[in-house]
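PT: before anyone asks, these are the final sequences, not the draft ones from last week. 964 residues across everything. Please model them as a single complex and drop the result in this thread when it's through.
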Amino acid sequence: MKSYISFRNDLEAKKTTCAEAVETFLATIAAKQDLNCLLSVNAAGARAQAAEADARFSAGNPRPLEGMVIALKDNINTKGIRTSCGSKILETYVPIYDATVVERLKNAGAIIIGKANMDEFAMGSSNENSAYGAVKNPVNPEYVPGGSSGGAAASVAAELCHAALGSDTGGSVRLPASFCGAVGLKPTYGRVSRYGLVAYGSSLDQIGPLAPTVADAALLFDTINGNDERDATSCPFTPLNTTSQLNAPLPATFTVAVLPDEQLRGCDDDVLLAYRKVLGTLRGMGAEIVTHEMKYIGALIPTYYIIATAEASSNLSRYDGVRYGFRADVTNDEDDMVIKTRSQGFGAEVKRRIMLGTYVLSSGYYDAYYTKALKVRRLIYNDYKQMFKTADLFALPSYPTPPFKIGEKSSDPLAMYLGDIFTVSANLGGVPGISIPAGTASNGLPIGIQLQANHFDEMHLMQYAHHLEKALT
Amino acid sequence: MASELLGTKYEAVIGLEVHAQLLTKSKIFCGDSTEFGLPPNTNISPLSLGHPGTLPVLNKEVVEYSICMGLATNCSIRPISLFARKHYFYPDLPKGYQISQFDEPICYDGYVEIELDTKGDGSKTQRIGITRIHIEEDAGKSIHDLDIDTLVDLNRAGVALIEIVSEPDIRTAQEAVAYLTQIRQTLLYLGICDGNMEEGSFRCDANVSIRPIGQKEFGTKAEVKNMNSFRNVEKAIEHEIERQIGIVESGGAVVQETRGWDAGSQTTKPQRSKEQAHDYRYFPEPDLPPIRVPQVWLDEIRSRLPELGLQRKRRFVRDFGLPGYDAGILTQEQSLAQYFEDASAALSEKTTDRYKLVSNWIMTDVMRILSEKKITANELTLPPAYIAEMADLLASEMISSKIAKEIFPEVLEGKSPKKVVEERGLMQVSDNSFIIEIVEALLSENPDEVGRYREGKKSLMGFFVGQALKNTQGKANPKIVTKLLQERLDA
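LR: through. Structure below.
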């Protein structure tokens, strides 16, 4: 993978140019079309941005991310570049405004190379739910790249860009990062503005970076985080600079919470092996390992799928064919137009989740499902608060199995849902989590390990992750 | 006739839901203008078009206005209240849901007092409970009546509304109108809504049911919509009560449904059934944090609340000695009340008689001009001090009421009444010797009438007074004329 930081060193040493980098990436994109990573390629825009970046380097005033070539998950709005969400219903939708993160990236000098394929409306764990076809894992194209930010993670792994932004509602950044051998960060809820991110589960969604290294992810995170007055749920804090702390020495001892063995029972042996190896490495770095039993582990998946689908059923109501996007061929009947547009425009998984969400919000069922899920969510939040009173970090697998083959699980949605067991708690509890590469499975595909930290403690999370990454390689 | 059974056999139970558009410059969740009457789809943005990725940001002024209305209607204000999403598909609802409040509205448990006496003297008042006031966004407008297609105008989408829900405390159509009048007046006094029913910035739906007098349980209600004037509200409720009594009397049962007032046929008609029994799937709006109203903010808003209509009316009765009827009319609208107060303050002598004269002038001539020109009192070029001058001239018998009427058009053009009277020499003559001359000349010119008067035809006094005034071009003080005539004719 091509690290931006090493590329930037080459740039400063005048060994290369941004224009050259963009051409190389465009050539790789063309060569690796079969992976189906990108849904739009912004060649002309990227070339123009590269020219400006080179001019700034020549003039000696480059910006923090000058020349960083970025792919954006196709649910992050880009003014003038189609944003399809991997859905037919938005196949013609060209946003009229940039998401806050896109504005911040552009202001920092990043170059937008294209829009990454994804599970439709970010609903999926394998990137097989895209209306534009499945994404293939660059390490082995027979395997899934993970989802839902599969195109973004695969673009980084396949060297179509320096880094990417994805979105993580229940693990959609961390899971594909682990499957593709990249680093993926889900920030604290509220840390990064959601303005311009097409909503899936509004109380869970966070935009996060995917990159070859923790340091690259940190650079990207530093640029996009911080208060945004256009998002009423964004945190009140000014942008955090995690890069400055990455190399600060760790304390001589620190506490890492881990799951008890019985809560890891469903994990694949390869994953357990990688997990235990990482715990050993952490011990060597000074970690005291303490067991933390997640009391509500059995309720995590139901709670997540109730809250996420409830919010999704509401958020996706706006796709009615009236104002933008796909509209079915219909008579002049308004109801008919809405029904046919949505029936033809949404894929099977999206429809399944809209129906689930509609059901749990229906009168007569609301209290049994939605109200109860909110209560469990509060308990999960409290459990995190309790854990981080004593623990500096929480270490757990990113996914219970190594990457699986395309088609292997697609006929069993429930099995697919259960795979999200280690990622959804961070979204329900609102804490930050990062997946970093932790070796290779027996099938030759990457395995990731996940670290989580207290709310708004990305500073330490990135620092520990950076040190662990170095210790593991 | 069903209407005869109302009040004898049946009583009606009515609750009103009022939607008031708030007069904020921008919409509730984005910076779009709220200006009315612009070309379709010009006050829009990605947010009000419901574009993917847009997020609502609350306009704080909306909360402040809502709290004002809550305080003015004696409501409790929640320190923390929540927004909720209300879901339904409609072409003019861009997001497929309306951001509203459900479980915990910002204001609850209030009341207004309405006056039901015919004289307007406040002798009979009634409290109508306010269940809740909540904040929500307006939808756009669908235009169906053009042959081609349904057209959608989203200028109105996202304009701030408050919904004021009354308790089912109202028993007659007249009480409903009195309540509506009170709510509208309060909104106007607070300056938070323009109260324009025709333009739809003030809308009212009525829940109407009937029950036998003495029965505690409510009957089945119908929700009546589409009433765009106070008159229509009254007529629609009257009709709906009569319709329901008719059904029950003929052995039928009222169906719970939504009915629309059809002004053409003067009846209510069922609206499309798909709008009924809707499951709106309310749930807390995840994009907006709770509305927090700290005590200091509440106290600060309370301290800025203006005097409201009913308070002002009662003060007018108390301080100016006006009849309740006058006070009611003068305080209907704030600038008119202020006009009265300004005129009264300019009187040279502050007496009840003169306040009443000012009131008379305003209630007749001034209000006629206001309605002719369709303006409010603060837009009137006639200074209130001139009304005071008129009252002073009349009360001190410097002019007669006839002269007063005569000079008013000139006063309207911006001339001081005193100046007009002086310029035109219209000062009333109270000089006895001058009037005696006129009276004696008159009597000697009309010996026949004098004779008939003395034979008993006393009604001829009117003729003599009229002639005498005519001969002085109206300047003679009619009281003195009458007195001098009586002295001579009855001697």
